[in-house]
Amino acid sequence: MVQCHICQMWAHFECIGEKEADIIGLWSCSECRNIAKGINKLISKMSTMESNLAVVQENNASLSRLFNEKNKLADELRDENTALREQIAGLREELTCLSSVSTQSGQIDLLCAEIAQLKELVVSRTCSCGLSKHRDPAETEDRVILLGCDLNDVGPVMTSDGRRVEVHTASIQDMPEAIDKVSAANKPSEIMIVSGLLPHGSEDEKDTMKDHIDTMVSKVASLKCKATISGILPARAEKAREVSASLNLHVSAKCKDAKIAFVDNDRNFLFRDGSPDPATLSSDLKRLSVCGTRRVLTNLSLTVAPDSSRKHSATNGLARRPPRQRQAPGKSDPVRVSDSSHQTYRHTTGQCNICGESNHVTKKCRHSQKVLCRTCGERGHKSKHHY
């Protein structure tokens, strides 16, 4: 038999399955050996738990520091909140004081609105009476400038809201210098540019015009005011029309990049088949006629101010020919009707509202839009209807 040196229990060699010769020194039973292994495992677990505990203690210390910082921040926010509440209370007191003034401010707003209406009424009465020509736009802050190429003299020009327009003429090459000249004394509130005609339409002229257009657009954009640029007007030559259409695309792109309004004149200067209207050009084909100038002004939302000292001349500077008085068969006698220019034209009860003819109805007229009279500049009738 053999005795366990740990629990002092005796065991037979046959029971433990060992021989006496194999046992040397102290011997422990299987139960005691399992206890030793468990103790070793517990010791390793304890060491692991101690290391984890150290990590938890470090985290706890960092969290405590963070809590202290947040607590300080909360105290600061409480102080700011208290200060803001005091400011709100002061503002409420001021608002209470100002509430008594609100009724007076409302009355002031009503008076300002009435003054604005009276100003508009005075401007409209002045324009209708033709007295706006006594107003010097160079001395006012609200200046409207029209720089045009190849324009004809049609008299004082005004905007739709009754402002006088300063009209200056300059070629496309001298346009930057003209812009500097007119804006040197007083910066304009609005500027309008008429690019003019294209005489020949060669490739060299096309490249030169592009350079002048780029310089002009950059100069207009530097003014930083409301600006409008009218496109190059179509010429009679087919080649010149193609080049002018290409240049208008270039002008439109440049104006879009510079955020400048662009106005295309083709719809009022070409017939439905694409051919140019000869009534828009002068006899030498180098500038616009009175009719063409009026169409450009119409495209720019401008009007010619009534002036009793000026008399409308015939298109292209030619003498007015006597009108042909005709009457459609079966119609009533002609009726004299006065228009806004105090001139008269003939119409009957069956006349067309687009061209003024009496041999067809309005829906069967061959014209796409109202015909422009070359004598008075009004739409809806032809020059031959005047007498």
How much strand content do the residues show?
A: 5-15%
The ordered H/E elements are EEHHEEEHEHEHEHHEEE
- Give start-end ranges of low-pLDDT stretches: 130-140, 308-321, 327-349
First-to-last CA distance: 156 Å
CATH homolog superfamily of the domain at 138-315: SGNH hydrolase
> What is CATH's topology name of the domain at 138-315?
Rossmann fold
Helix residue percentage: 40-55%
CATH hierarchy class name of the domain at 138-315? Alpha Beta
Based on secondary structure, the structural category is: alpha/beta
Radius of gyration: 48 Å
* Overall residue-averaged pLDDT value: 77
CATH architectural name of the domain at 138-315:
3-Layer(aba) Sandwich
The number of distinct β-strands equals 11
How does the major sheet shape up?
7 strands, mixed
Shape: elongated
Describe the structure in your own words.
With 387 residues, the protein is α/β, with parallel strands linked by helices. Among the domains are: 138-315, Rossmann fold (3-Layer(aba) Sandwich), CATH 3.40.50; 324-387, no CATH class. The chain contains 7 helices and 11 strands. It has helices at residues 13-16, 30-129, 175-182, 203-222, 238-258, 266-269, 290-299; strands at 2-3, 10-11, 144-148, 157-159, 164-169, 190-194, 226-230, 261-263, 302-304, 335-338, 344-347. It has a 7-stranded mixed sheet. β6, α4 (203-222) and β7 (226-230) form a beta-alpha-beta unit. α3 runs parallel beside α4 (203-222). It is elongated, with a radius of gyration of 48 Å. The protein starts with a strand and ends in a 40-residue tail after the last strand.
